[in-house]
Amino acid sequence: MDASMNDFLAGMATAGSWAVGLLLVRLWRETGDRFFALFGVAFWVLSLNWIGLLLAEPPIQDRHYFYLTRLAAFVLIIVAIVDKNRTTRS
C-alpha cells in the first residue's frame, strides 16, 4: 500500500473517531451518564493519535511513542466500563 492510501485511511479513521466522539458527548449531555463522556473523550484521544501519526510521519522505530496515546484511550474506556458497573450495583 502506498503512502497516499495510508494517509487517506488515517484521515478516515480520524474523521470517524471525531464523529463518534461528538455523538457520544451529545448522548452524555442528553442522559448525564459519565459512561458516554468517557467514551467520547477516548475516541477524541484516538483521533489525536491518528493526527499525530499523519503529521509526524515517524519512522517505524519511533512509532512506539504513539502507542502511549492509544493506551490512554483504552484506559479511559476501561475506566468508563468499570465506573458504569460500579454505579449500577450500588
Describe the structure.
With 90 residues, the protein is mostly helical. The protein has one domain. Helices cover 87% and strands 0% of the residues. The chain contains three helices and no strands. The chain has helices at residues 3-31, 34-56, 64-89. Helix 1 runs antiparallel to helix 2 and helix 2 (34-56) packs antiparallel against helix 3 (64-89). The chain is elongated and about 50 Å long.
Fold blueprint:
Blueprint (H helix, E strand, L loop, with lengths): L2 H29 L2 H23 L7 H26 L1
Helix pairs in contact: 1-2, 2-3
Oligomeric form of this entry? single chain
What sort of overall outline do the alpha carbons produce when their principal axes are compared? elongated
Strand content: under 5%
Number of strands: 0
Low-pLDDT segments, ≥5 res: none
Straight-line distance between termini: 51 Å
| Biggest β-sheet strands, sense, barrel | none
Radius of gyration: 15 Å
Give the helix tally. 3
* Overall domain count: 1
Helix content: over 70%
Overall pLDDT confidence = 90
Structural class: mainly alpha
Helix-strand string: HHH
Quick overview:
With 90 residues, the chain is an all-alpha fold.
Features:
elongated, mainly alpha, 0% strand, 90 residues
